[in-house]
Write a structure and sequence with these properties.
GO terms for molecular function: siderophore uptake transmembrane transporter activity. Belongs to the TonB-dependent receptor family. With 718 residues, the chain is mainly β. The chain is built from four helices and 33 strands. Helix 1 packs across helix 2.
């Protein structure tokens, strides 16, 4: 695992742009048995290999991704498991508080942003089934490569590529999941299929996945508690559809149309049972009928791209896209205080629930080539445009909670990469000019925010976001780099606008709407020689008006805009053993973050970021084997205890730490691969990180992690 282009799988393959071709997996060679080829990371907006970029990049390839999804069930869990500086997941539909390097990552599919920053419903990790994902590209740290949202980094999911062979091909998957006590309510299953056809210059792919998840059980055989409001992946059904049609206009130019639809809906068979934080009893669940509609998430997306890696000796990438989401949050049996309105029903009796509605339309174009007559200098020029409209409604009473908010971003950008001394030294840098406009019409807040009239407005933001770095590679396989990059996002405007409770507020003069500009400064060293690959990176970042999630007395998180500073250390070591196909790996991440907690703020950080805003220190250990028809992996994650310090420290939020061990084994029978995977192999009972570090008085948000869970599956490609 190398700090510039760490491979989290056991193979190294040539990867083409996300909207172009993908390598036929039958041609993959085992690492160490053949020379590796350069990797192209589409999220980096360049066809230069990652070792030419002053970035920390990870690639989770198809083999590693499928292996992790078999263990844990989702792409988000796979990324969180393999990435030490990523927060442990909540094992819920909502990813609120899950961070990369202490800040929110930008989730994307083929470069299309899934994140909705104007009113972040935290469902952006669940917008497509991993069955249709070929690889995941991670770019660490604040950057503006994909525009708004990448303050913690980028998690780009690249869908399966076009077929490379003539005729019909495809894949089928059947699997079942159960806790080790085989409770009937805990049984789940998944079936999926993908058909691909190629004839001459034309190809088409289409597939569908259906998954039923049962109830989760913790390490003591107790039902894991439900968060009815934010949503669950347990006790749910998922349908995911995918289609791709492509045409090779010339030998190099390609036109692709990609469409997908993903929907996850809770079955609504259970209600939460309060736990007891004082005695260590976690929140549980019992049979029951929760009010309202079950929490659900639906995403629909269409993208059309035209690419040509050899247009006038350069690389052209264009894309237009449309994306729509509907995120429904569930209703609680006990009425939520924020939704009460005496004009509708007596206070304390009104049950309501909310729904985020978002629509994105955008386009991207970039062109990259070496400068004629000065081939050592590569230039990229491009332009991105994005229009996003988001609102949040209370759907049982048809009230507006978050007013419709329009976001528009127009951003030209340019990058330069200069190779010196036969590529032993590289200088890279660029700038992106962001022109952002946010428009919100006049609106009135809810009764619990004093029913105040708020004057709308059109705040704007224009800024140049810079990046630059130097790479030194005196010997192939030994590399050091230093870099600086700026990223930006807008605060969760929905949380801010809905919380206005005093008259006379105008959006144009409301300073909390100002964008968040963060930076990432980093130095790293990488060694990839023989059977060893090792890396270390140290980073530090800051933002003058960062975004912190602060719980209000009603349990709903609001936003505060304060200065934040984060620093961290990442260390990774991988080694191939003399036994062919065997590999050991170690990963470690230490993160420290503080913010300015004083009122009024003075710009000096004095209090640790809590568990809602930063991940714990972590040690990952893994051993894997892949030779012939057999493959296996045993992995452990040690989440280390932490005492939060500072002026506003609450000792009830200190983290006790826990350890999880997973394993998987697979055998290729020739006609498909059969596999057995186990999550939490030792069946340890633990309270998850999010529950242990926030809402210290809420006994309905004290969730245990999932106990031992086994998955048996059959995966065939033809």
């Amino acid at each position: 695992m190398n700090i510039g282009w760490r491979l989290l799988a056991m193979t190294s393959v040539a990867l083409y742009p996300a909207i172009g071709y993908a390598q036929d997996m039958a041609q993959v060679e085992e690492a160490g048995d053949a020379p590796t080829q350069d990797i192209v990371v589409s999220a980096a907006r360049s066809i230069l290999p990652p070792n030419a970029l002053p970035l920390t990049i990870d690639i989770i390839d198809k083999q590693a991704l499928d292996q992790q999804i078999a263990i844990s069930g989702s792409v988000v869990d796979a990324v969180a498991t393999l990435t030490p500086s990523f927060s442990p997941t909540r094992q819920k539909l909502s990813g609120a508080g899950e961070t990369l390097r202490g800040r929110s990552p930008l989730y994307a599919i083929n470069g299309i942003p899934q994140t909705t920053p104007l009113r972040d419903g935290s469902r952006d990790g669940y917008t497509i089934d991993g069955f249709f994902i070929d690889r995941v590209e991670l770019i660490y740290g604040s950057n503006a490569l994909q525009g708004v949202g990448g303050t913690g980094g980028i998690v780009n999911q690249v869908t399966v590529g076009a077929p490379r062979r003539e005729g019909l091909s495809g894949r089928a998957l059947v699997q079942g999941t159960a806790d080790t006590d085989f409770h009937g309510e805990g049984l789940g299953g998944k079936v999926g299929g993908l058909l691909q056809y190629k004839s001459g210059r034309f190809d088409i792919s289409a597939g569908a996945v259906y998954e039923k998840r049962g109830v989760f059980y913790d390490g003591e055989g107790r039902r894991v508690g439900l968060n009815l409001t934010q949503g669950e992946t347990q006790d749910s059904r998922t349908t995911s559809l995918f289609a791709r049609a492509g045409y090779a206009v010339t030998d190099t130019m390609r036109l692709d149309l990609i469409a997908s639809r993903f929907e996850l809906k809770g079955d609504g068979d259970y209600v939460a049972v309060a736990g007891n934080r004082l005695t260590g009893l976690p929140t549980s669940a019992r049979r029951g009928n929760p009010p309202g509609r079950s929490a659900a998430s639906r995403t629909e997306s269409v993208a059309l791209s035209l690419t040509d890696p050899d247009l006038a000796q350069g690389n052209l990438v264009t894309q237009i896209f449309w994306n729509r989401t509907r995120d429904t949050f569930g209703a609680e049996i006990n009425p939520i205080a924020t939704f009460q309105d005496p004009l509708i029903a007596p206070v304390g009796t009104l049950i309501d629930q909310s729904q985020n509605r978002s629509r994105k339309i955008g386009g991207k174009i970039s062109y990259e080539r070496a400068i004629p007559g000065f081939e050592a200098l590569t230039a990229i020029v491009g332009f991105d445009a994005l229009w996003d409209r988001t609102e949040q409604r209370l759907i049982l009473t048809n009230r507006v909670w978050v007013p419709p908010s329009d976001f528009r971003s127009l951003a030209p950008f340019g990058q330069l990469n200069l190779a010196l001394f036969d590529k032993a030294v590289r200088l890279a840098g660029g700038v992106r000019w962001e022109n952002v406009r946010i428009r919100i019409d006049d609106y009135t807040t809810l009764a619990t925010s004093n029913r105040v009239a708020v004057k709308g407005g059109t705040p704007t933001f224009q800024d140049a976001l810079f990046n630059g770095g130097v790479i030194v590679e005196p010997i192939r396989g030994i590399r050091a780099y230093a870099s600086y990059a700026e990223g930006f996002t807008v605060p969760d405007i929905g949380r801010i606008t809905r919380a206005v409770n005093r008259p006379g507020v105008s959006i144009d003069a409301f300073l909390d709407i100002a964008p968040i500009v963060s930076n990432n400064r980093e130095i790293g060293v990488e060694v990839k020689r023989g059977p060893f690959d090792a890396s270390t990176a140290y980073f530090w970042s800051s933002s003058d008006k960062g975004q912190l999630l602060i719980a209000n007395p009603g349990g709903i998180f609001d936003v505060q805009r304060l200065r934040t500073e984060i620093q961290g250390l990442e260390i990774n070591l991988g080694m191939r053993l003399p036994l062919p196909g065997t590999r050991l790996s170690v990963g470690y991440a230490h993160l420290s973050g503080r913010y300015d907690s004083k009122t009024p703020p003075d710009g000096i950080v004095d209090t640790d970021l809590d568990g809602a805003n930063i991940s714990p220190d972590r040690l990952n250990l893994a051993a894997s084997y892949d030779r012939g028809p057999w493959s296996a992996r045993l992995q452990s994650q040690f989440f280390l205890s932490r005492t939060f310090k500072g002026r506003l420290r609450d000792p009830r939020n200190d983290f006790g730490g826990y350890t999880v061990v997973d394993g998987t084994i697979a055998y290729n029978m020739g006609k498909g691969t059969i596999y057995l995977a186990a999550q939490n192999l030792l069946d340890r009972f633990y309270i998850d990180y999010s529950s242990d570090t926030r809402l210290p008085t809420d006994n309905f948000s004290y969730f245990a992690g999932r106990g031992r869970t086994v998955t048996l599956g059959w995966d065939v490609r033809f």
